[in-house]
Write a structure and sequence with these properties.
With 132 residues, the chain is α+β, with helices and mostly antiparallel strands. It contains 4 helices and 7 strands. It is globular.
């Protein structure tokens, strides 16, 4: 977890701030469960039509998963795209490894997903149904 949150995420956030997002990456915006403030977390691009798929490396213990469990209305943004709102939920019984394969449709996505999988502790799948 330390590697991802202390090294990778700040670099990805900086790239987004400079308007140079890394291909295969996306941003997830949740509402803090205690603070009520917007929280932006770098994630792998899992856009598939009007659904956005995520795999949480730390499962239900990840702060962003706890946030979207408390408040399921979220927003996502992929490279070159606009913010899209949607409703998120944890998908019980889904196979995170199989899900990663299904959303790894480009080399950039596969690299992001493979890097993220290196720090898996208890992965869980999250589905975001995007508003039309």
């Amino acid at each position: 977890m330390g590697f991802q949150s202390r090294l990778v995420n700040p670099v990805v956030r900086l790239a987004w701030a400079l308007r140079l997002p890394i291909p295969g990456d996306a941003l997830l915006e949740t509402t803090g469960r205690r603070s009520g403030k917007r929280r932006r977390t770098p994630v792998c691009d899992g856009l598939a039509g009007d659904v956005f798929w995520l795999v949480s490396q730390r499962g239900r213990d990840a702060d962003w998963v706890r946030d979207l469990t408390a408040e399921p209305r979220v927003r996502v943004r992929v490279s070159g795209g606009r913010w899209r709102a949607g409703t998120a939920h944890v998908v019980a019984g889904d196979d995170p490894a199989a899900r990663r394969q299904s959303i790894g449709t480009t080399l950039a996505r596969r690299l992001c997903l493979a890097t993220a999988a290196l720090s898996d502790a208890d992965p869980v799948t999250v589905r975001i149904d995007l508003d039309p």
